[in-house]
Records
---
Amino acid sequence: MSVTQTMEEFQSILENEVPTLARETGAVKRKRKEGLDSVTLVMTVIFGFWQIPDLRLSGLAQMMGRRAVKVSASAICQRFTAPTAELFRRVLQRFAQVRLQSDKVEIALFQTFRAVIVEDSSTIHLPACLAGMWQGCGGNAGRGEAALKIFVRWNVLTGQVLGPELTNARTSDHRGPFHEEDLVPGCLYLADLGFFAIKRLQTIARGSKGSFTKAEKRFFVTRWQPRTILYTRSGHRLDLKGLLPQQVGQVRELGVVLGKHDPLAIRLIVVKVPEDVANERRERMKETAQKHGRQPGEDVLFFAGWSIVLTNIARTTADFSQILVLLRLRWQIERLFRLWKEDGKIDEWRSKNPSRQLSEFSAKLCAMIMQQALMQEGCWLDPYRSIVKAAACIRHEINRLMIAFCEGGVHKTVLSILCCFRSGCQLDRRAAHPSTAQLLVNGLDWELELLLT
């Protein structure tokens, strides 16, 4: 679908499917001849919090005037019930199923891959009373009793987001809702260490049946998980400490085997990082471990002095410097979650009403899905795009888009909004600390030691 067809699909969900979903969830028990109907409520909440994430109920009441609905703030407040929260969750599920296919950004390093998939999760803390619905992982002062996790797969080659999928917060990353078998042939897969598992990497590289044709082969780049045993090609256990380079910027690369059973031949790349970078990593490790009530192991702190990378990409396809650039793409999904949280405020709300909090959360995620579709079509082919600036550009036009959803003219309005991306939505070029986009386009300057972070 084109972006205009995608937006029309979102409009169809809101106009045609919401009434049915409202009856199924019990959010609406009888048909209202006048007043606040389910379509007006859902559409206004999504667009209202998209434009102003901390909007008051009085602001929502004002926006409902677009649909000729006169309602008080207290009447809106009364509509945020458990069935309404379930209605918004069902709408979110439908929004997540809409897919926009678009062209690939033209970067030479990407040409080998059919897709570049980055996967990650983010936790949203909820009131303790919701622990029966969304189980957290525990924590101080009851903060972790109830929480949910958002899982996302992001194809940074086209900008397409798969998900978000919601699970209990206690779901571990490597047991998330996405499966390795669903990765497209010829793709590159990137994820944090929370998703690291030998069996997972073997499945990505070989498939569930144990073998791929050359055209079906899939690739991965990942950091090495401390205490993961590696073997030489002859089957001997590798002493990694004895292979570590000692000079900053020095690289050691060799072929190794991952997994004693069903072994997988891969590349090991080890780079010595500056001491200040290593110390910064150790501080982050200690802070993360402290949040979970534990202390990082001595080996974990020791190996922080090196960047240790595993990949099944051949040397003829990408050298070690290009592998390190590809590894940096893993952080791009962190920027996406940061945009959703800091800009879209998906984890913030004014009310203490749990049903209203869940409704706002789902509504804001629906807005972020539509926002990504607009950015995917409007600026993704520019490798220097700034998703923060693009999101701000979209927010200025939200009112126009809502009017189009209510009164018609979505196609013309969307095309007009896309024109706004032509200027002012690019990253600033940096000479001292090049961005990932600059490294992808221009390559890695190995003299810049700070790039080893």
Note: The first helix runs from residue 3 to 25.
---
Amino acid sequence: MTFLKTVSCLCGGILVASSMLASCSGDNDDPDNNKKPDEEIVDSKNLDYSASNADSWHNYSVRVAELLARDSEQLYNSWNESYNGGKSFAEIFKSANTSAYPSYLSCIEEILDGCSDIANEVGDAKIGDPYDLYVQGKREEALYAVESWYSWHSRDDYANNIHSIRNSYFGSLDGSVSANSMSALVNSLDSDLDSRTKGLIDAARTAIMDIPQPFRNNINSSEALKAQEACADLDRHLTTVLKPFFENLDNSHESRLGDIVANYVDNVVLPTYKLLKERNAAMLEAVRNLSGNRTDVSFEKACQAWLSAREPWEKSEAFLFGPVDALGLDPNMDSWPLDQDAIVNHLKSGNFNDLLWGDGDDDSKVEAAQNIRGFHTLEFLLFKDGNPRKTNN
């Protein structure tokens, strides 16, 4: 994730902020008073949908939704059909005969690394960064560090991240334990270890959902601290206990590991990405409908479509390897925090090329494009204070 600088100031006792620019009545951001007469200070925090910007607002929303639909389709097709013009990544991963994955154990290690990475990210970054900023007295920075705060969907996102770990370990999407799963193998060899692993997964999810809603208003709560600790416990267990358990298995288990990897791909990764593709296509339709039928009801339907499309993405974050990483699809779809001022500037310019990048572009151009597209840009355009935006403000 790309973290942005935030600034804040007090106006009449009220804390006001923008992601990059801020202004207060009676203050001047230019100490030398060199502001040109035609320059306009962008107050991206308070920007709202209006009749004057509606056309640009909808054009932008549709374009972002189109890119999300395209990226999610590319992600699914890379796993299911062809990756870089060759075999599907599913075939590559399940074969376990490449330099990257020379054995089924190496595939299991990749899966477990993905699980521990997202457990750490949820606890240390998604919950921990806002918490740390808040207790340091940087309250506005803390707010802007909260992922999905426009929709008030943060807790659900984080809980779904833990579901992605559960699904990877259970080898299923419905909470049942597949016969060909890491859980089933661990249980057959060390039932206590399996119980502890399940308990830590459940404890992390429960602790997250115990944070009072919305998280943006409860950043410094005791429940948030407990959720951090539960995620840290899970990360530590996956890294120092469960992964070594698999690494210490003898070669007689290699065939069983192959069955686990195949089941993981066929019954966790592929259906998750298929659902992501389908729901992003449905979200695009809802956003297009909103553009053509500009009513509060259409805004509500587009927001519901966003929430629906968001779920499989968050449930995929335990497997952010392969095409989603190599093709830049993770930051394309899920960059956070947002560069709100760049979004406002793009809204004004309507230059869709600003959203695109290609092979050979330098890092700054790629990052600039990714910062004004994806789930959270669309969230900003659809939601305000946890609710769908209104056509009349």
Note: The CA atoms of residues 11 and 25 lie 7 Å apart.
---
Amino acid sequence: MEPKAIATNSKQIPEFKFKCSWVICSQFSLLLLLLISIAASSSSAVIKTLPGFAGELPFKLETGYVGVGDAEEVQLFYLFVRSQRTPERDPLLLWLTGGPGCSTFSAFFYESGTCFLFLNLLCPLHFSVSNYTGGIPPLFINPSTWTQYLNIIYLDSPVGAGFSYSKTQRGYIMDDYKAAAEVYTFIRKWMMDHPEFLMNQFYVGGDSYSGIIVPMVVQEIYNGNNLGFYPNFNLQGYVLGNPVTDYYIDHNARVPFAKRMTLVPDNLYKAAKKHCNGNYVYIDPSNAQCLSDVQAIEELVREINIYQILEPVCKTISPQGRKWGRRSLEEELDVDLNSLLQDDPAFWCRNYGYVLVGLWANNEQVRQALSVREGTKGYWKRCNFSMSYTENVRSSVSYHKNLTNTRLRALIFSGDHDMSVPHIATQTWIQSLNITVEYIWRAWYVDAQVAGYTEIYTNNDFEMTFATIKARNRGGGHIAPEYKPKQVYELLNRWFAYYPL
């Protein structure tokens, strides 16, 4: 099935198609670019210092807003970090966070940018959970970051996430198609304001629920390039981590994954497979045996952390009411700050580290430093699940299928102990694309140790790399860069450099 095109507000961005000599076109394009960039509705500020960090930042940070939608009522907030290597030549990556409704700070502080020292991760800036004593959480520098080799735009999308806001209540009514359209409009306007990056290799990436949105945006950019829309992107591909892709495939894979991980006994799994005919999602209400088997499986995994099955379930989360549904398992919970000061590892919970970014982002000095517009955002949440958001794209597989007919490249990676979007689900939809296995399943390494396994698929000039991030010492979870930052750092560094894993 041909993927549906997303509707964009093309009236606000003029499109130009004409013939001329190379010299005239070049000069005219530069002038036109300058005029359009001046006229574009956006604002930005260069941030040299941040509350909690001693001295000037060792990288160039920009924050700002870009207006999108009808009458630009929606104002999307972004962070932009220039590569610390050669920003004029390094790839430019637009990064989206999942949810839908999670702030880009999740990526900036816990995936590619910063982390909390309590977990001893390798990131360029980090919070120190174990040493926190109150006030503005201190930030510390750490040199291992994706921005060592990438220019990265971190976007608060959809509106309502992070510091993005709408001037009208109507603007907050959102769905998958509208969210993708606004991201597409954002990046076109952002590029007009930053013409120096037009020649850089351009990629779109994200994790979790952005697995629905990213392929839609990439398809729209690719189509716009072919139609001669302005600006023309040097689009090279896309990156997705533990991506939500297809409601049925993703959820259905949880049962065989639980069996593989010995969370479910063989006899129960065989019975469920027989009685449900391999369908554990859309169950016939009259099929009592299937319903009984699936309920028994759900009961066995009820107290398992499905985002990383080796990690404990947070003690603040009651096991009652936990279901297979994605939203019910992703609710952001308040954590008692006293829990942060517990030295006993038995009290450890990954959510504790998220409290510090909330304290930091809700501090007035921080908001002023980031040039957040006053009065546009009340209490900041790392993930806002109270939005008026309709998930109306149940599968993005058709977009991936369409993109296999391009010259683009894709990197898909999965933490291998994530049960919310199991790696076997991702492998299932990749195989459904009917593309050729170019390099069969093999190990890839970091520090002479197996970091995971990889396989490469091709279709003429299209190439897709799939890689797992192996679990070790609480590793390989749902947001893989947060659990295994060094391994994912090496994975991306090699892939962007066209280097074998």
Note: The chain is about 30% helix and 20% strand.
